[in-house]
Specification:
There is one protein chain. This protein is about 45% helix and about 15% strand. It is of the alpha/beta class and about 400 residues long. The chain has two domains: about 10-95, no CATH class; about 115-385, Rossmann fold (3-Layer(aba) Sandwich). The strands form two sheets. The chain has a seven-stranded mixed β-sheet with strand order 7-6-5-8-9-11-10. Strands 2-1-3-4 form a four-stranded mixed β-sheet. Helix 1 packs antiparallel against helix 2, helix 3 (about 60-70) runs parallel beside helix 14 and helix 10 (about 255-265) packs across helix 12 (about 305-315). It is elongated.
């Protein structure tokens, strides 16, 4: 048998089953031949994702399956066994047209990390539905790692602690001009403004910009916060006392990281501070963003090593003053997002549809598994630009 040890059970559309060899194992239900066709057409993570997102693959324990996939090692098959399994899969499918790729999948067009292609990728993710994100984020709609490790007990408290920490690290003073790169729905921009800063927030998501502007107006902060629909590469000739980039560097990519650092450095006055908050890989040759996340969640996303981000910042003329990791905090943040999304699944499906809901239930759990497995972490890197000589 190709897999003598199985930590999962399989149940097929015709009622046949393959039992697990270990107790308390999840059951994976193959509901239609199209599920197998997806996996034959795109073997590995992408085919499995297509089958699940399309609804032709189901499970009684999604958490258990995600944990299993994180540890799963493909069995080594001799050529004869591999051919036999492929023939059996084709026979099970019968004569059928290849199944359609789920509509939630995106392959961006254009030159990698060009302004236009980055806009496609970001809007695929963030223009999904503001109401959908409200279901699982905290009241401030902060979509990045919360910090529980400094005494917070709720997601709201932990996100407030994170925003406070960023302001403290940047040592913001009354009246200082601050840039919020990738400002999302305006959480940090509003928080910094409430502490006396003058803030420009930029995003390339029209849905985010629209809601952020409304929230700024409702908070009475229009005189302190400006939200722009702009790419960081659009900013020239301006100067800021401090810059916060929270959860944005993951969209920049290896090819653009040095240009990103140079552009932000060029926007700082002498003595200005930059805080870069982003997810980083912890392995030298593994854990690039997988096919599922690339097609369904963060098209063109790239997790760089912390050392590569620091190198880019140093090359741009910035002095790195402090680095701090919050991997366990992000795991707890994701657990809370999963809990809240699961509690609001009926509303979520109404906002984004069944496919996208399945994408996000799988994605949030997969991200948590990567943090729990010490494959990725999140770091805040604080830098200062030297005074001009």
């Amino acid at each position: 048998m190709a897999m003598p040890r199985r930590r999962f059970a399989l149940r097929f559309w015709d009622g046949s089953e393959l039992t697990a060899t270990e107790p308390c194992s999840p059951t994976i239900a193959v509901l239609a031949p199209a599920a197998i066709a997806h996996m034959l057409r795109a073997p590995g993570q992408l085919g499995l994702a297509r089958a699940y997102v399309s609804g032709t693959l189901e499970t009684d324990d999604l958490d258990g399956v995600v944990s299993l996939l994180d540890l799963f090692e493909r069995p080594r098959l001799d050529p004869q066994t591999a051919v036999g399994l492929a023939k059996a899969a084709l026979a099970a499918c019968g004569r059928m047209r290849p199944p359609s790729v789920p509509t939630a999948e995106l392959r961006p067009r254009g030159r990698l990390h060009s302004v236009g292609r980055d806009a496609q990728a970001v809007r695929h993710h963030y223009d999904l539905s503001n109401d959908f994100f409200k279901l699982f984020l905290d009241d401030s709609m902060t979509y990045s790692c919360a910090i529980f490790s400094r005494g917070a007990s709720t997601l709201e408290e932990a996100q407030h602690a994170k925003l406070d920490l960023v302001c403290d690290k940047l040592a913001l003073k009354e009246g200082e001009r601050v840039l919020d790169v990738g400002c999302g729905w305006g959480a940090f921009a509003m928080h910094a403004a409430q502490r006396g800063a003058q803030v420009v927030g930029i995003t390339i998501s029209p849905a985010q910009a629209q809601l952020a502007r409304r929230r700024v107006e409702e908070a009475g902060l229009c005189d302190r916060v400006e939200i722009r629909l702009a790419d960081y590469r659009d900013l020239t000739g301006e100067r800021f006392d401090a810059i916060a980039s929270i959860g944005m560097v993951e969209h920049v990519g290896e090819r653009r990281i040095d240009g990103y650092a140079r552009r932000l450095s060029g926007l700082l006055r002498g003595g200005g501070r930059l805080l870069n908050h982003g997810i980083a890989r912890l392995r030298a040759s593994r854990d690039r963003i997988g096919a599922f996340t690339q097609r369904y969640v963060f098209p063109d996303g790239a997790l760089l090593h912390l050392s590569r981000v620091e190198l880019a910042l140093e090359r741009a003329g910035l002095d790195v003053e402090h680095v701090e990791g919050f991997g366990s905090d992000y795991s707890r943040t994701l657990a809370e997002w999963v809990r809240r999304l699961d509690a609001g699944m009926d509303e979520a499906e109404r906002f984004v549809g069944r496919e996208r809901l399945r994408v996000w239930r799988l994605y949030l759990r997969g991200a948590k598994a990567r943090f729990d497995g010490d494959h990725i972490s999140v770091y805040q890197v604080l830098c200062r630009k030297p005074q001009a000589v």
